[in-house]
Fold:
Amino acid sequence: MAAWRRAIELALGEEDTAKLRSIAQSRTEPASRVERARILLAYREDPSFFAVSRALGLHHQTVQRCVERAVVEGPMAALDDRPRPGREPSITLEAKAWLVSLACRKAKDLGYPHELWTTRLLASHAREHGPAEGHACLAHLAQGTVCKILDQEDVKPHKVRYYLEQRDPDFAEKMAEVLCVYRQVKLLKKAAASEKAAVSKKKPAEVAIISYDEKPGIQAIATTAPDLPPEPGVHATFAREFEYERHGTVSLLAGIDLVTGKVHALVKDRHRSREFIEFLKLLDAAYPASTAIKLILDNHSAHISKETKAWLAEQPAHRFDFTFTPRHGSWLNLVEGFFSKLARSVLRHIRVASKQELKDRIMAAMDYFNQEPVVHTWTYKLEKAA
Structure:
């Protein structure tokens, strides 16, 4: 006669019970975890293997194994499958290391027309050359296995991440000069705020600091058919014909007054020295003759050309002062943020009938921004530049 199966005492705390109830009612947990959570909750209410098995439609030995494991390992550990030994790996560690080292080379170095590896090409090369290198286990290497091996080592030979190797040798010094100008802007803002608070007579500023750059290659693109507006219940967006016409490009020359936020701008077909000088003349007319105009700008050829230097030499002393950003340091120029805003809010999806219309709309955008100027502020701490 079979021995009587005694009920096993299963102690479940309130926290474990709450977790088990959450898992038992889950729609996203694996089915095995949900089933075991229900077993433990049912056994807590009625500690009988047979009663629980009948209620849940399971074999009583399944219930018994789950409860016994919960008693020994804990109720939450009993929900997961035990690790299985599995099959011995067929690909050796040496073969994996050879494959990873192969992935770290360029495919073109091994005679392929490809610049970089694809996982399919890498698997094919390993199957062909692996056995000859002493790795017979790679003779039937699958592409999926290559992906798994490379993922384990966090190697992605099919991707390229760019970096900058060569920098301006005087990068730190030039950056410090630009940040000193931004500190001067901060002092000018404080002085302007104190004068406004004192309700003093408005005096023309003695210094104007302009963050300047060009945005070339703005395309004048025309549609070949009218855009269709959104229609409720039909399509939620504007509909646009795929074909388009090109009418050339224009360049935006713009500078932001870092104290007032006003934008000074010109839109031209090109951005040579003569266009840059025209912009300087625009600034010259915008500020009193006693105001020193400081520009933060990059080392574009138009900014340092003979034509530009000759024009500057004809101007009064200390009227214009240039502070150049270092090479590959355009992020130091605050006007870049304004160009980003312009591209996202005005130029994105823009369609025009001619280059002149594009110029007019860009200048209209400048007038719109100048209605409520935004004062741009640099938050980088000068001490970090050392």
In short: Strands lie at 207-223, 244-257, 263-268, 292-297, 320-324. The chain has three domains: 14-79, 93-153, 171-226+242-385. The mean pLDDT is 89.
